[in-house]
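FYI - complex with NAP, inputs then prediction.
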Amino acid sequence: MKITGDMLIGASAVRGTDATLRAFDPARNADLEPAFGGGGAAEVARACELAEAAFDDYRHAPFETRAQFLEAIADNIIALGDTLIERAMAESALPKARLEGERARTVGQLRLFASLVREGRWLCATLDSAQPDRKPLPRSDLRLQKIPLGPVAVFGASNFPLAFSVAGGDSAAAFAAGCPVVVKSHPAHLGTSELVGRAVQKAVADNGLPEGTFSLVVGAGNAIGEALVAHPAIQAVGFTGSRRGGLALVDIAAKRPVPIPVFAEMSSVNPVFALPGALETRGDTLAAAYIDSVTLGVGQFCTNPGLVIGLEDSDLDDFIDNAAAALEKKSAQTMLTAGIAAAYADGVKHRDATAKRIATGESGEAASGALPALYRVSAEDFLAKPQLAEEIFGPTSVIVVCRDEDEMISVARRLEGQLTATLLMEKDDVELARRLLPVLERKVGRILANGFPTGVEVSYAMMHGGPFPATSDSRSTSVGAMAIERFLRPVCYQDLPAALLPAALADDNPLNLWRLRDGELGPN
Ligand code: NAP
């Protein structure tokens, strides 16, 4: 499939005339062909109007059609073959194996949501029978199901050109919920986005869905994203990126005449508590695994372990020495964009002013190369300097040395909201872990034991979210089946005649759903 540089507005390819954009190859430091035509408010309005027009037909399409649509997107992405992988490699400097893995995750995610749609539990179909003889007042017949919110705006992420982008988790969850989607292409992945966009556009047509079910807009600068979030047809926003960008969108959404929810995933340092028993028994292997996790994908993961917290003793000293030695063997690598590389360089420069750098990676040839950097600070310093707890997006981490357990708990209490927290522990550490757990539960979305947070499973029980600033809304996830919840809302039908009831709530359960009927859960 050929990349044309057009936007995809409903069934049409539309050439934007407001600006000319080019994708960039950060490894070769060169522009990529072709040029893209950037659109503006007019194209956003057209995409949003089509999405609004599509909404009722799309949400009422049989669940089987919706599921087949999701599966068709997955099939069409696979059919793009190496064309997609090669373009994503050129636009992101990510290696082939990583992008092939990400493609597998993306299609797996679409297929998971297809099976979720078929299974129907997300409807939360609930029936409370009327009690006409109840005293002192009779009870009405009450039936509840969840319905989709309406058209959703999705902002692709720089660090996952496939899995958090045009047909990534946000889009898959919104489509599964019954929402049309308008994607704002990430400026770093214009070609990858068009290829995947065309795969979605074809799936819309092949499944007989209304054209406004999907659009992809492209623009230069913030204006197009701002117009998208402000458009009255848009009912929710999915975003992954910087804290500044996420908060700007939250602000626009809150100031609309009709405010809407923004699910923005922004920043997290993913603290790792290295407890004494674990360091005593396997500190050396943990040090190597920690540095592998910090430098994986040039540290460009939202789950990168940016903070390790340990108790002062000789095992922690050994762990720090081993981690420093491991990091010194890691070389500089090209980051996703020159902007991200510049932000990383600036971040470590500021960190050098507040913390002791104990190790630096090897410099390499990379054009936008990020040099790994490791820091050590006392808990006292950490508690006094809040900037040490801020995310620097890239291959860097801070080790915090605590005098005693109480100080470790104080550090945990001081943390901002996070996507994850990790406990490296052995049996002897259970009591300390038990003290930390209630603090961490209030701070993070996922608590792991004896692993590292990079690598997020797409499954039913996954939670990839957390209190601010990890996300703008801690009540949901951006990865895994529960993501569908963000794009649904409950509606209760009171005393409606059978002729008006949705199929999910009909007496004879024609969709064969599991329902909560008079307090009993089952296929009833
Ligand atoms: P970004 O600058 O926040 O951009 C993400 C998307 O939002 C882009 O499509 C961008 O497009 C748009 N956008 C940003 N600010 C906007 C605004 N004020 N109004 C409207 N649209 C806006 O993030 P990025 O390019 O992915 O990476 C930059 C930094 O984000 C990184 O250095 C890192 O700190 C952070 N990041 C964090 C995570 C995480 O998961 N925690 C992941 C990726 C990146 P335009 O620029 O074209 O408007």
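The mean pLDDT is 97. Residues 96-119 form the longest helix (24 residues).
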